[in-house]
Amino acid sequence: MGDGNARQRKRRGRPRGRHARQGLPEVSLRRDAVGLRDVLFQSVTSMAPGAAIAVSIPAGAAFAGGALPLSVLIALVACLFTASSVAELARHLPSAGSVAAYSSRGLHPVVGYVVAWVYLLVEALVPALLLVQLGFTVAGTAHQEWPGYPQNLWWPWVLAGAAVIAVTGYYGIRAAARLGTVLGAFEVLVFVVFAGLLIAHAGRHNTLTVFGTAHTPAAHEGVGGVIAGSVYTVLAFAGFEAAAPLAEETRDPRRTLRRAVLGSALAIGLLFILTTYAMTVFYGPDAFDAFGASGAASWDGVARASFGAFWVLVFLAVVNSTIANANAAANASTRTAFALGRVGVFPRSFARLHPVHRSPVVGLLVQCLAAPAAALGLGFAYGPDTAFLLLATVVVTAIISVYLLTNLACAGYFLRRRRAEFRPVRHLLFPVLGIAAFTPALLTAAGLPVFSFVTELTAPVSFAGAVVALWSAAGLVIAVVLWRRHPDRLAATGLVHLDQESP
Known about the structure:
Blueprint: H1 2-13, H2 17-22, H3 36-46, H4 49-56, H5 61-64, H6 68-92, H7 99-106, H8 109-145, H9 155-170, H10 173-202, H11 222-233, H12 253-283, H13 299-306, H14 310-342, H15 361-382, H16 384-416, H17 424-445, H18 464-485, H19 487-491
Helix pairs in contact: 3-10, 3-12, 3-14, 4-14, 6-11, 6-12, 6-16, 6-17, 7-8, 7-16, 8-9, 8-14, 8-15, 8-16, 8-18, 9-14, 9-15, 10-12, 10-14, 13-14, 14-15, 15-16, 16-17, 16-18
């Protein structure tokens, strides 16, 4: 028995498949550790539905007014085009490198590396962004309820949130996925129940006219206001791709990841439509252009004024959403860094796994040091509110860039490598429509005044575009050097490291 176990361990440590042919060490995450429910909630929590409903989506109300439900519906359709591209690629290229592997195989290994480099920036900064939000949300609410609590005492909550993410991540993907499932289910349930209460209280004021242009504000009348609102609300959908980096730890990944990516985008999109409709008809469509993320005309304000202690559940759902999203981002960033370290295009220490929990311990350590450092550094330098806006702008600008290249990669992969399986609608039309949908969102997120409804950013938030551009340029330089010196390593970013690999 002992000799059998020893032989089995030895076999597991040997290079196999394409790894063996390229002389690279075989390092495996825990296979078959999670299923559809777990990876579905990995994407769901990465979309942060609670925070999106309460904070992100109301940003479109000033433009769409009472037609905001229609804007959200349009944003959902637009998002599904890109989700389809990710799902199609995940079905054929289940890899911890996810978007890096897609662009490497669909476009070029240099592009794949740059995409990975930018995606690492996104997923490394998302926890910092959410920890800042956790800090000022809890501190602000505590100060509102108990004036003796200092509103500027936000930073201990940053450290507390970072500790939760670190401990959960250390114990492996099963623990992290279970936490995500519980937290994600809670925030979804709270807002579904709240939406039901709003619709019931609206009574005869329930109307489908909010899915037309009748209630757009005077400053943004008609279809133009609806489109402007959808550009802002589409930003709330970011994160649906986060299931993809768990490919090597997922049971039946080719089938499961496709369902998780599409399922999360569709399910949370429908939740966004439901909750936006409910609040619009309750608050009043013709006055909804005044609705926002704070004050009396907000989810928190309505809950406090009309539903008594229910505001506590809304508060807990938003807090819960920040922790769940940060946890999901840490899962994605550590797996992406692991994939790059494994093939030698990132420090190989990032491929080091815990001997028992199979968690990428070095990546987790770096993530759990960098996130609170960025949150505290920017928070103390500019204040937590401004730090949040700066980090959010960097993250959204970077992730939309990744989405645009992933759409291109989908078309390239099926045209170049899977021509027999190429479907014009799914593999060309949908990617083109995904690019068309996210390009205005990218310009809006970066604050470039291409459209009349785009608000030009001010410093330091306006630095976000330069940060993403410089980071991307640095990644391109590194990729070109690697391509000249170690082309085999760079090409390996597109490999599928499962026992049964894609041809």
